[in-house]
Task: structure prediction
Amino acid sequence: MNTNRNQINRIKEQYPEGTRILLESMEDMQAVPPGTRGVVEYVDDIGTIHMEWDNGSSLGLVVGKDKFSVVTVEPQITVLVCEQKKALYTLVIENDLESMQKLVDGNIECVQMTETIELVCKEEGKLNDLEANRRINNDIIAGTFFIVAVDICDVEFMSLTKDEIDIYSEMFAEIENIPQEEVKLGIDIGFIGW
Result:
């Protein structure tokens, strides 16, 4: 019994409230999908890690049965880059403002795609008359942009998962020929995007 209590205390110390988790796999039949991120709410007295998953699930984790890892601020992140008239590609960049600004060639603007995915582009891309890149809803993104994962609790940028790369590679696969006049029109009529 004492060993069990020590193990539970160790779990509580290792996974305190607020710890970000990335799920690799789960044994439960109602499993949360692999690649889902979430935050620890608490560890109970039998060692179950109670979670608040980003997809809305609250299914707990069992150490030794479920596979997961703690999400830390990554020094480097994998992003999906979309340049004008080019195929998309993944790139590993330093997880800092300077590297992101260099990639888009100026101050960055973040546009939320989902709760955990953002599009990062040059803040004044249209005002600087950068070449049109892709259409998104009723707006046009001008200049190079990239797609990155974001931790919704700590607002930290994170690497995209393979599934996320696949989804956004398909979404932006088509190289668009957008007349530059449409970029100017978007400025004139005040597209606010999303």
Summary: The first helix runs from residue 2 to 14. The chain is about 20% helix and 35% strand. The CA atoms of residues 9 and 117 lie 35 Å apart.
